[in-house]
């Protein structure tokens, strides 16, 4: 592979080393794009050196003509790099949305883990992806966790390249003589992420400077640390406020909830709801729930996603000696609630 070793390739190899324990078995999620092929090449070097055992998984979403050929070409390059095993998994995507594709993709990646016994899957997201994710979070207006972007580690999924930009990935591919695929959906204006990438980010770089992606990525790192701390405190507060907890119901002491600072209380409510297997409520529903807790004259119920009902139980509805509580309830099978 030609020429002097570029610094970015050494950086990518070291980024993997920093996240993956020596001797681990990993899979590289490879789409055939520059980012994932650069990641594959970096992991393949460590595989050849015996530092890790590395294979690859290519997910064919079957959403575009020729997707099977693209998947086959990506798999062939991974094999040529020495990665083994290399799996190609086809998925059925519920609709044409990014979210549906993501759900199908991660389902396939988990299957790959089970089939191979690998401990981790390496994902090729870069600093530019992280900056775009922060801007998406700003657009949604959904708080600190949204601004925190993508985590470097989430369960078995690792993102070692979050500190490196997209141009570095292209340099690696050029050095390793890898032919990467340009996904045509990356220019589709239907997707908000593409508008951010191709229209908003160039303006931000022009106005705020070329280092704006790095600044946004630092914002993500700081926001994630803050969010993690607040979530830890919320988990403790939830435990203290909980009077009853089952698979389908949770009762939270109202006086304990009211004593919490607002930002902490909202996290406690979110965790209480997600603990019942329901989606995280949006801003409007969470605000309504907080109002129910604090000072609403209504006892509810408030209907939340995942069939969760929130009801305030107080006054004559209480048993003797019982204090007021918030009831979060998800009906069990056969329930008439």
From TrEMBL:
Ribonucleoprotein as UniProt keyword: no
InterPro entries reported for this sequence: Rossmann-like_a/b/a_fold, TilS/TtcA_N, tRNA_Ile_lys_synt, tRNA_Ile_lys_synt_N, tRNA_Ile_lys_synt_subst-bd
Keywords, comma-separated and alphabetical: ATP-binding, Cytoplasm, Ligase, Nucleotide-binding, tRNA processing
Single annotated GO MF: tRNA(Ile)-lysidine synthase activity
Reactions accelerated catalytically: cytidine(34) in tRNA(Ile2) + L-lysine + ATP = lysidine(34) in tRNA(Ile2) + AMP + diphosphate + H(+)
Sequence positions that bind ATP: 31-36
Intracellular or extracellular location(s): Cytoplasm
SUPFAM superfamilies in alphabetical order: Adenine nucleotide alpha hydrolases-like (SSF52402), MesJ substrate recognition domain-like (SSF82829)
Enzyme class, broadest EC rank: ligase
Record bears the keyword Nucleotide-binding: yes
Boundaries of every tRNA(Ile)-lysidine synthase substrate-binding domain copy: 252-308
Residue ranges of every copy of the tRNA(Ile)-lysidine/2-thiocytidine synthase N-terminal domain listed in the record: 26-199
Pfam families recorded: ATP_bind_3 (PF01171), TilS (PF09179)
Assigned EC number: 6.3.4.19
Domain notes for this protein: The N-terminal region contains the highly conserved SGGXDS motif, predicted to be a P-loop motif involved in ATP binding.
Protein task: Ligates lysine onto the cytidine present at position 34 of the AUA codon-specific tRNA(Ile) that contains the anticodon CAU, in an ATP-dependent manner. Cytidine is converted to lysidine, thus changing the amino acid specificity of the tRNA from methionine to isoleucine.
Family designation: Belongs to the tRNA(Ile)-lysidine synthase family.
Name this polypeptide is given: tRNA(Ile)-lysidine synthase
Species assigned in the record: Paeniglutamicibacter terrestris
Record lineage: Bacteria, Bacillati, Actinomycetota, Actinomycetes, Micrococcales
């Amino acid at each position: 592979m030609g020429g002097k070793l570029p610094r970015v390739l050494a950086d990518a190899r070291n980024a993997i080393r920093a996240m993956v324990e020596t001797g681990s078995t990993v899979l590289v999620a490879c789409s055939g794009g520059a980012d994932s092929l650069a990641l594959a090449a970096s992991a393949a070097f460590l595989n050849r050196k015996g530092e890790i055992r590395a294979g690859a998984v290519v997910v064919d979403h079957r959403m575009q003509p020729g997707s099977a050929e693209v998947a086959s070409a990506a798999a062939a390059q991974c094999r040529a790099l020495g990665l083994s095993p290399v799996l190609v998994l086809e998925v059925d995507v519920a609709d044409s949305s990014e979210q549906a594709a993501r759900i199908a993709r991660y389902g396939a990646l988990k299957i790959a883990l089970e089939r191979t016994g690998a401990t981790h899957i390496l994902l090729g997201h870069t600093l530019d992806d992280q900056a775009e994710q922060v801007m998406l979070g700003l657009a949604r207006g959904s708080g600190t966790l949204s601004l925190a972007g993508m985590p470097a580690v989430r369960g078995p999924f690792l993102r070692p390249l979050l500190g490196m930009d997209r141009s570095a990935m292209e340099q690696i591919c050029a050095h390793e003589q890898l032919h990467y695929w340009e996904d045509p959906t990356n220019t589709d204006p239907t997707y908000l992420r593409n508008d951010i990438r191709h229209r908003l980010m160039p303006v931000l770089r022009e106005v705020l400077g070329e280092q704006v992606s790095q600044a946004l990525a630092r914002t993500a790192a700081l926001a994630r640390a803050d969010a993690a701390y607040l979530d830890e405190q919320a988990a403790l507060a939830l435990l203290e406020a909980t009077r009853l907890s089952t698979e389908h119901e949770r009762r939270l002491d109202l006086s304990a909830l009211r004593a919490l600072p607002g930002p902490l209380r909202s996290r406690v409510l979110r965790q209480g709801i997600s603990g019942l297997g329901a989606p995280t409520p949006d801003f409007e529903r969470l605000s309504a729930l907080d109002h129910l807790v604090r000072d609403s004259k209504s006892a509810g119920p408030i209907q939340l996603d995942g069939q969760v009902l929130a009801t305030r139980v107080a006054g004559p509805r209480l048993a003797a000696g019982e204090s007021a509580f918030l009831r979060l309830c998800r009906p069990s099978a056969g329930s008439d609630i």
